[in-house]
Amino acid sequence: MIQEIISGLTPQGVLRWAFLGLCGLLAATLPLLTLYVVVTRSGREALRMGVTNLGRNPLRTGLTGVGIIIGVGAVVAVISMGDGAQVMVAAEVAQNGGLSLIEVYKDDWARQGGSTLTSRTRSGWGRWRRNKAKPLDYADYENMNMLLSSVVEVSAEDGFGGGIIFRNGETSKDGSLNGATPAYPAVYNWRVREGRFLNAGDVDASAKVAVLGAQIAYDLFGDLSPVGAEIVAVQEKGGRERGEETRSESLRLQVVGVMEEKGAAASTDGWDDRVFMPLTAFHKRVKGDTDLARMRIQATSVEAVPVAIEEIKRVLARRHEDPSAFEFWTATEEIETAGRLGMMLKLLMGVVAGIALVVAGIGIMNIMLVSVTERTREIGLRKALGAKRRDVLFQFLIETSVLSLSGGLVGTAFGAVLGRGSAELLRRFVLAGAVWPSTVSPVGVAVAVSVAFVVGVVSGVYPASRAAKLTPVEALRTD
């Protein structure tokens, strides 16, 4: 039974149970302590004495609070970075087309055992199987345009990732040449800055026209407008390493538009060096076949994405034996994946932060036991003057609560700075060009401070109980 429960636990489940436990402890202690301080005179006196006693030994108090500060800081930093990662992914998805996107493509390889490909569309050996399914082609794109009812845009594309030299007179620049269809800007949320994009007439006529990315337009033309000018695309074929003679093939293209700058974010790096021409012209004049790299399809809404995928599969089945040989990427899946990864990050780092808080709690308990020993006569004198057992108990609990809450507040500020600094380091040295925001959510702050409070209360229970059990006679005898 226990093994089944453990095996069924998920990161979300662990966090949910931990959160419920935290809420239970808060519900049991915070109202009680607050009511005692607000309603009773002895409670207000206990709060004053607790703050005074902590101020008498600032070095001891500071060193004891370091553990709380580090633990809470780690919690806040991890939550802020995890939330920032989700914000970054959502922003990139929105920048590149939105949540209703579906991308269809054929992977050359499929994982053995994890693929739904039929035996006829698999070959190879070992862990990976080669996908032998017929690739997507221009006829599939035409079918999608005619037969899909739950989509608003269908775009097809193909291209060379590099190896093309573009020239404007004596000026040249390396870039990528891509065949595209008119819906390309819509499905990538990429606007035209100057001129126009490719239209249906360009595609139907296989016109020799081009649209330039912002960077390659600047590299070839500087501050001058390239619209109406002519560029030459040069492709080298063959290669000495294969014993073939190198030859160049060139194609003249008239520039009809320039795209807006996409920037160097992780998901759009190199986009501004792209050159687009009609897909039909690319197939006819450059590549020599009608295969597609991918199709991007925009559903009518996020809710319509599953319906659209089923429609796409039915259309593919008209010309392909095994529609499951194709991959279906959706923007919502990417965000869900980012959410799961963020949750795992929070859980793993939360364990580390939890260890730091446990160590801090042990430190608080140790210091409070020392404090009880040092203040035994004070406790005895208070009891002799009429203080009740609960007054002594609450005095020490309030003292540990003040210590832990103070550490929690400082740790929150430390965690916010740590999270922002870590996000900046990731942006500069790991994910160059990415915008990784550090978002400190009110929920994260509340959780961190609550954890600090609970750690303080739990750590103070034993020392406070020990102090409360002392009798006046026994306490006053102590030197």
Summarize this structure as a short list of keywords or feature phrases.
479 residues, 2 domains, six-stranded mixed β-barrel, 13 strands
Number of helices: 15
What topology, given as strand order, has the largest sheet? 5-6-11-8-10-9
Low-confidence stretches: 1-8, 113-126
Separation of termini?
Answer: 55 Å
Largest sheet: number of strands, sense, barrel closure: 6 strands, mixed, barrel
- Characterize the overall form: elongated
Radius of gyration: 33 Å
Indicate the structural class: alpha+beta
Mean pLDDT: 79
Helical content stands at 55-70%
Number of domains: 2
Residue fraction in strands: 15-25%
Tell me the total number of β-strands: 13
- In N-to-C order, the SSE pattern is HHHHEEEEHEEHEHEHEEEHEHEHHHHH
Instruction: Indicate the multimeric state.
Output: single chain
Any overview of this molecule?
The chain is an alpha+beta fold and 479 residues long. It folds into two domains: 224 residues, no CATH class; 185 residues, no CATH class. The chain has a six-stranded mixed barrel with strand order 5-6-11-8-10-9. It has a three-stranded antiparallel β-sheet with strand order 2-4-3, with no helix packed on it. It starts with a helix and ends with a helix.
